[in-house]
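Need tokens for this chain, all 283 residues.
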Amino acid sequence: MHTDTAPQGAVLPLPRPPALAHFLAGEQALPITLEGERAWLLIALAPADLVLRAGCEAAAHHAQPGAFCLLPAGADTELNLAPGGELLAIGDPPAELLAAGSPVPLRCNPADATLVALARACLAEREMAGLASDLLIHAFSLALIAQAARAAARAQAGRDGRDYALAPHRLRRVTQYIDQHLDEPVCVNTLAEVAGLSAKHFARAFKQATGDSPHQYLLARRIERAKLLLANGDLPLAQVALGCGFGSQQQMTKVFTSATGVSPGRWRRGAPDLLCTVRGAND
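Here are the structure tokens for all 283 residues:
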């Protein structure tokens, strides 16, 4: 049986790898500008507060790991990545793949755990060198785009046809109120009043905009506040709990451990130095 083989020493042509950019914010917020000559697919790898501006459009999101957002070509997009946020940006995603799921531009789609695993694998290959890594980076990038399209289609199929979108200025008011009152009891009815909506409409609109229920978002913000207090001071754990709005040290320990996998005390003893690095796009 005859088998075609490449001539010895021949170099096989490879498709051009997509542009990738990895953004990691540390203690300070990280301003980012993505060029508008290409579309971008953003994937959150860590909880991220995002403010997106593209032309006349603007949107604010609290993205959980695995949430993703499509930035259309045509205008530069400015992002403000809050401390602790991490993003992977993929440039020039094939339109035919994204069209299968029709993700809405500038809307943060619900989190998908598979995207995080694929993104981490892609970033690991970027640390390597060689033909195999180049092929894997290309394959992981296409897999990320295809998975995002599938997740967007799944989310679209689950909607009941009504639009519960939360206007950016309403979302901004709510998230600012939460951050300013983390040490106090906060209920959905109060947040709905801040947004100027009914409690039922607000809860559905907030989840559609952020991927989290108001309660989930509030707990995530309390945990982030606790991390900062634990890393930057020697307050007793009971005071940290009260300063973050938990009813007791025991409640904080239960919620914190469930979210991070370690207790507050252990997290304080092993808290890593906060970093702020940016890896630019690889064209």
